[in-house]
Amino acid sequence: MLPYPLLSASLVIMWLALNGFTPGHFILGCIVSVFASWGMAALRPVKPRLPKWYLLPKLVGIVLYDILRSNLAVASILLTGGRRKHKSGFITVPIELENPTALAVLAVVITSTPGTAWLEYNSLSKTVLIHVLDLVDEAEWQALIKTRYEALLMEIFK
Amino acid sequence: MNVIEHAGDLPAWAALAVSFFLVVGAGLTLTGTIGFARLPTFYERIHAPTLGTSWGTGGIVMASMIFFTVLATRPVVHEILIGIFVTVTTPVTLMLLARAALHRDRAEGNPEVPAEAPLEREAEGQPAAGD
Fold first, then answer.
1. How many CB atoms lie within 10 A of CB B86?
2. N or C: which end of chain A has fewer CB within 10 A?
3. A96 with A126: CB under 8 angstroms?
4. Are A123 and B123 a contacting pair, CB within 8 Å?
5. Cβ atoms of A78 and B31 closer than 8 Å
6. Of A63, A66, A74, the residue nearest A132 (C-alpha)
7. What is the distance in angstroms between the Cα of B44 and the nearest Cα belonging to chain A?
8. CB-based contact (8 Å) between B124 and chain A?
9. ipTM score of the complex?
10. Chain A contact for B94, CB < 8 A?
């Protein structure tokens, strides 16, 4: 009946947090979470395994800091507009990660960081096409993504 | 319950923090939308709104969290959930738009767009996580 107990529990808690802690909402939340987890089971996702989940806060911290920094960088590019010329371009980054969940997390990280956008992943050549707003040095960006995010994700999703 | 009536009960430090985060969040979002209108190409333009979806949302959410926590009217989970869902759903639309644009540019033979990786056509349509 409950293929994903953790998911169902989180859904009930979220439902209660959003709607108020009343018995009525508890029952309603339980019904919603049961149907939602059936829907999730129908998608047959690969169960993500996180042996080193305790490294996740470190990743979140790094990402939040980087997002803040690139927010300022992109805002300054946008505000100075025509005065300071920036050059944007595409880069291809080889990615060794294969775990779909890890790739999804990396996509969220790259996309939420202003100035970089994850365009497409090629599962055969294992490369990602990324568009960078302020592209100065391609090798520098590749190294940044590989050392700062990929290495940590590799460790988390080993 | 009128929230505005309670705003007077807010201590000065909290009011300052709330205003600071509101102005920062709203300012970043505004900057993003200006960039969205001003940048010349599609691929550059997709970067601008991410200001609003990252710390733009973050700042406003933070202000809201401080406001309601200090007034102790309700727990702050709502804002955290908003932050998580905005962050997690942004890449979906962005990739959809970007890949549509890439496909169109490649079909038109636009030289500024990198060519499709040669192996992709031979793949047996295996979907990847990034898709």
1. 17
2. N
3. yes
4. yes
5. yes
6. A74
7. 6
8. no
9. 0.74
10. yes
Q: What's the token pair of residue B12?
A: 């000065």
DSSP code, position A53: G
Q: How far is CA B30 from the centre of its chain?
A: 12
**Cβ neighbours of A102 in B, within 8 Å:** 129
Q: Is A4 exposed, middle or buried (0-12, 13-18, 19+ CB in 10 A)?
A: middle
CA distance A99 to B129: 8
B44 touches chain A (CB under 8 A): yes
Task: Give the number of residues written for chain A.
Answer: 158
Q: Which two tokens stand for residue B115?
A: 């060519």
Find the helix or strand (DSSP H, E) in which A90 lies. strand A89-94
pLDDT digit string, tens, across residues B32-86: 898 888 888 888 888 888 888 888 898 999 998 888 888 876 667 778 888 888 8
C-alpha to C-alpha distance for B87 and B93, rounded to whole angstroms: 11
Record the tokens describing residue B98, joined without a space: 């970007």
CA distance A100 to chain B (A): 5
d(CA A109, CA A59) in angstroms, rounded, equals 10
